[in-house]
Design goal:
Oligomer: single chain
Structural class: mainly alpha
Strand order of the largest sheet: 4-3-8
Shape: rod-shaped
Order of helices and strands: EEHHHHHHHHHHHHEEEHEEEEE
Largest sheet: 3 strands, antiparallel
Radius of gyration: 60 Å
Length: 448
């Protein structure tokens, strides 16, 4: 079957019509027949000449071939007889089934009724042609359901097809006007709802933007170039793994893993590669060193060491061993910390093990906020070079550890019961304290 439908073309009523190439439908053939009839009337063509005047107007090759083969017989026929011979091409059964199966659906009643009547005219002169009463029954049975309800409510009784069509058309137009009003009302409600929703979204967006702008106060409006945080090296990963570190915040001794990290990634602009010395520095459970306070040497001298001497028999015989009048102190510049200070203090400590007592000023103890602890048994001492031989009782001590300035070495603070060499600081007299020497890197029998 051709996808192109044949159609009738006729420049004017005085010219014979043409039926173009394509599928010859019953509608197209009926239109060509009407054009031929109009041509016959205008040109007053004799009945015996009609077929040969218009038969060539059928341009479909199949029809032309049929006409050439049977030309002599077909030219002698009347036009009505000729159309009867062409009639089987139009397939009356197809037209009848199409007409009887049609329903109104969503079309207007008038449009549908005209279409049914047009198809019935194609069947005129055939047994399939319907009378007006049958057309009325078909339209009544297949009209739109809403229109059928209004039709039965009006109790329309009419035998004349034309009058009946006019009454049903009026009902259908009334139904269509109601549908238009209903659709307009629904559209208006939808537009109002969309406008309200759009207004709510805009107000919510404005509120969120206001809250965000109020809560976000940029510290620096100057744009800064983006710096990418470098990837952890194998050395950094090893240091973090060995020192309970976090691979996210990259802090050793963090005490948590990356999944539980609340600090986040470090600032890429100020990030420095993690090194072993940095890890050792963070081992000291101290606050970050932000300042070092130099203590005056005279006011913060914490030990006095007498030079060693050789006892003789009072004679000048033998080798003479003369002790120097003064030897330089062995000092260690270090950092001490305590609860009362925000950063460690820098002091100059005497670490010469020639003295059994290391003294510290009470003022420094108060400044550091060190906790004074009760001795289990008071310890009596007396000044060696004082004329006054009165002794003192030491009843308290404090714990203290010292850190080198580069934070590489830190003194150890042994437990209290590790006698006879605990790390303790004891009050000596009204203003002094003493401590048995125990600093990492310096033992009682050697200096480092």
């Amino acid at each position: 079957m051709s996808s192109k439908i044949a159609r009738t073309e006729q420049p004017s009523a005085s010219k014979p019509p043409f039926l173009t190439v394509g599928e010859v439908t019953p509608e197209a053939l009926r239109s060509w027949e009407m054009g031929c009839t109009q041509f016959f009337m205008h040109k007053d063509v004799a009945a015996e000449e009609r077929v040969k005047k218009v038969a060539w107007g059928m341009q479909d090759p199949r029809i032309q071939d049929w006409y050439l083969v049977n030309r002599k017989e077909l030219d002698e026929l009347t036009f009505e007889a000729y159309m009867a011979e062409v009639g089987p091409i139009q397939c009356d059964d197809t037209v009848r089934r199409k007409m009887l199966a049609s329903t109104q659906g969503q079309r207007t009643f008038l449009e549908w009724a005209i279409d049914v009547q047009s198809q019935n005219t194609i069947l005129r002169g055939t047994p399939s042609h319907l009378a007006d009463a049958n057309i009325l029954y078909h339209l009544e049975a297949h009209m739109n359901a809403d229109l059928a309800a209004d039709y039965h409510a009006e109790h329309i009784v009419e035998d004349d097809l034309k009058t009946w069509l006019d009454k049903v058309r009026i009902l259908d137009e009334k139904r269509l006007r109601y549908l238009v009003r209903q659709r307009d009302a629904v559209d208006a409600a939808i537009r109002a709802e969309r406008a309200r929703s759009s207004g709510d979204k805009k107000s919510n967006t404005t509120a969120r933007a206001t809250v965000k702008s109020n809560s976000t106060q940029p510290k620096d409006t100057t744009s800064k170039p983006f710096t990418c945080l470098p990837t952890l090296t194998d050395t950094e990963r090893q240091l973090l793994r060995e020192n309970d570190g976090c691979f996210k915040c990259r802090e050793p001794f963090a005490g948590h893993t990356s999944s539980a990290c609340s600090k986040g990634f470090p600032d890429a602009a100020s990030y420095k590669t993690l090194t072993a010395s940095a890890v050792l520095a963070k081992k000291v459970p101290k606050k970050e060193v932000v300042a070092a306070v130099n203590i005056d040497e005279e006011s913060e001298t914490i030990a006095v060491v007498m030079p060693s001497a050789v006892l003789g028999n009072g004679t000048d015989s033998g080798e003479e061993c003369v002790a120097p009048l003064q030897t330089p102190h062995l000092r260690w510049d270090c950092l001490v910390d305590g609860p009362a200070v925000s950063s460690p203090l820098k002091v100059s400590a005497l670490i010469d093990h020639g003295s059994s007592l290391v003294l510290i000023g009470e003022e420094l103890v108060a400044k550091l906020g060190l906790r004074r602890r009760q001795l289990a048994k008071p310890f009596p001492v007396s000044p060696a070079l004082s004329k006054n031989k009165d002794s003192f009782l030491l009843s308290h001590y404090v714990k203290l550890s010292c850190t080198s300035l580069d934070q590489v070495y830190t003194s150890q603070t042994p437990k209290t019961n590790e006698l006879p060499s605990p790390t303790r600081i004891l009050p000596f007299g009204p203003e002094l304290f003493w401590m048995k020497h125990s600093v990492t890197g310096t033992q009682g029998h050697r200096r480092q």
